[in-house]
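Subject: Re: docking follow-up (pyridoxal-5'-phosphate)

Dear J.,

Thanks for your patience while I sorted out the input files. As discussed at Tuesday's group meeting, I've set up the holo structure prediction with pyridoxal-5'-phosphate included as the bound ligand rather than trying to dock it afterwards. The sequence and the ligand SMILES I used are pasted below, so you can double-check that they match what you have on your end before we go further.
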Amino acid sequence: MHFFAYKNGELYAEDVPVMEIIKEFGTPIYIYSYGTLIRHIRAYEEAFCEVPHIICYAVKANSNIAILNLFAQLGLGADIVSGGELFRALKAGIKPYKIVFAGVGKSEDEIEYALKNDILMFNVESEAELNKINEIAKKVRKKAHVALRVNPDIDPKTHKYIATGLKTSKFGIPIEKALEYYKIAKSMENIEVIGIHKHIGSQITDTKAYVEALSKIISLYDKLAKFDLKIDYINIGGGLGITYRDEEPPDPKDLANALIPLLKNKKGKIIIEPGRSIVGNAGILVTKILYNKETENKNFLIVDAGMNDLIRPTLYGSYHEIQPVIPKDRDKILADIVGPICESGDFLAKEREIEKLSPGEYLAVMSAGAYGFAMSSNYNSRPRAAEVLVKGDRYVLIRRRETYKDLIRNEIIPEEIL
Ligand SMILES: *Cc1c(COP(=O)(O)O)cnc(C)c1O
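The structure tokens for the complex came back this morning:
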């Protein structure tokens, strides 16, 4: 559910006409709905209210500091995957004791930075990393709190690039090895084992894989107890899918109904790490039509947003609904909606049925709030888009459009050798 809808023949973000925003800030532009964000967070809070829990929002889905600040105000924690994300989360006011740190390649600097800020825990992905964390914790005279990220070997039936809990995946510790690694971790002087973590993938549209994965994790949890390994946190990861087209993913309540029976009678807090399901449908990308181009067998709508702004169609073959900001009930054509980038992979949609719009009109790419701006780049030296947050009848800029100067800000002409 979201708050982007047509009123009086034009698209609104909450109570603001999208046209009003683009007149002020131009395109391409990301527009987020405050009300939608709040609604999604409440849905999680309500769904899991029976069990002690922390929602650690997955920062990588959308890391704008205004959005993180809103989540901090709502008491959320953060699931981070880099030092940069830790910096953002702290700057936004997220409490360090609600921050969990995942990722297979944490660097020494990142580990030290996290230790010094007393984050809740590291989700450890290998034995080598465990050794490294122990070593750095010793150096900075801290005890590192860790969970082991366990790979339960479950197929979440999603795009192969976003499946993370299969045997062949680079993520986590194979479940057969977990007990052994827990014992090793327990014996380490500067490590305190406090949790168990899994995250099997993203855009999951069925609770079945969650139930299977959690069942495996819970058997491990029970086994650990026998070895006097006390686990205070069970982290079930993120990954709940959203509707891009006609998917009917479970909502947080369905997820909770499926999982809570497995978690009842387990001591310890539950951690959930949703990303996409909170921000995905809370954002749109608005783009202007620059040209119509017809070739012998194709229609192209050439727009001012490219794969540098939204790479999901190119990277995963993802589908996003694309709607005119002001629909006019004209005949429909079949068109490829493509960006200005010099790559044939630069498209937002292929063979899409859409009304025949003209240059100067605008399109809204729906469900673009997750892995949209966060994955954007400056490829083709394109300044990154502006971002705006709408709340009721008000809207504010939360990231200004980059300028040409921003593009070369960190570059140096080395006069001594040129
Ligand atoms: C990416 C990620 C998430 C969030 O996934 P979504 O599909 O956006 O909910 C949660 N946990 C970990 C460890 C991740 O890497």
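A couple of observations from a first look. The mean pLDDT is 96. Residues 58, 60-61, 79, 81, 102, 199, 202, 237-240, 273-277, 370 surround pyridoxal-5'-phosphate (CB under 6 Å).

Let me know if you'd like me to rerun anything.

Best regards,
T.
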